[in-house]
């Protein structure tokens, strides 16, 4: 598939279809959703996809449209199938509103199991002033063409993972050594990131982007499951069209936990998102 | 006062007294508290002190004692006086529990006003394995004696701020230029940090430490109020006795908001806490 071939638009894409939330009649702030099997890593639903879905529910529930800061605590592993998102409007202000959301699924006996609890403050990115005083600089990484895709070189995510087909992820070779048995040991992961159907990035797909790369633990030689405990994301600007650059670093592996710090840069060299998560370190 | 003079202990100090939460009889998970005027900056109660207080309530409510990751969304400015903290146990696991808390005060008509909403995951720091693979390095800053205290050089926090008397804060001269009208422009703030009565640090005082320095905005020449929207803190290790080093950086001032990234290092050169907040940038 050439770069310009299929170009889904915002509102009409795999991502939009699979993050659709349907308000329940007579239950304000409650939304039904279907967790798609298309966004799984091994058997579990990807945490970033889940966050995008909850993010859309909060956008529907709150008077402000855009996530500014979203704090998510992950409670149990989500599985494909039906889910219910319950939101609460905590505070409505002039420029920011704060909401809370809980995504639940149901076990074989019909009992409710909570998957993720979220606190978030929303605003209107379009209403922000244009001032930028950033001292941060975009990640230094090879051009899109010189990074590894799923079609060439090592697979960016090992195992049978449906999410690989939903993303156009091209890993910086410097952070892909683990796939060949030679991790750099630095705790870094960098990639070009797009949705596979060519849909442009928006604030909700940024919530996916911060948690869609292979774990930085892989680059430390720790290959295994690194479940997220908590993930907080700041969305700082509406992303420009074109591929994103995602750069993630881990500096402190200690006591069986690690942090992952992510930055997302857009094609206009704007720092559009910053996130940090606390995850359990793989045991290997 | 010489360094070894007054030495309050954990459990018996100004900080412990002022972060006391009293469980309400017959209302499980509900705590009464008194926000002390001793921890105010100008008229508002300091956000880190508030977080420590909510952190103690969650520690009382949850089966695990120590905050591992605490996400707080600030809703309105707290004032000295009575407050109620309502907690909810969201999930209890073997090694981690997740809870939620809401701190409210009451306006002149007795109506409830929510100040802060918190989601947090707690564990047992003493139960963590000893492995450390940190690539982070302690902040480069002058010795304790060569930093600016409140007794010499510029006041670390301008205005009439009671919190100054509760802290033994010694600012790195390289990040104190703003007090003399010459901010470095780098967006950095570094200080030695202790409680003034000599009480050693613990996980709760770390929640205070990440939000007790002058705003990094001052070092950018932006002098004014920088209210916190959201603050997430990871506590990674129980701090050793002795003064802490707190290093805060801001890299992205844009659209009227900025992030503050804090690291707290203990006297044993352990990275004991990492935090990031989203704040409104001062208008100047």
TrEMBL record, chains A, B:
InterPro entries membership: ACOT8-like_C, Acyl-CoA_hotdog, HotDog_dom_sf, Sec_Metab_Biosynth-Assoc, TesB_ACOT8-like_N
Protein name: Thioesterase family protein
Domain Acyl-CoA thioesterase-like C-terminal span(s) in chain numbering: 157-279
Gene3D superfamilies per the UniProt record, alphabetical: Acyl-CoA thioesterase, double hotdog domain
Top-level taxon of the source organism: Bacteria
Organism: Streptomyces bambusae
Domain Acyl-CoA thioesterase-like N-terminal HotDog, residue spans: 36-121
Region annotation (Disordered) ranges: 1-25
Pfam families in the cross-refs: 4HBT_3, 4HBT_3C
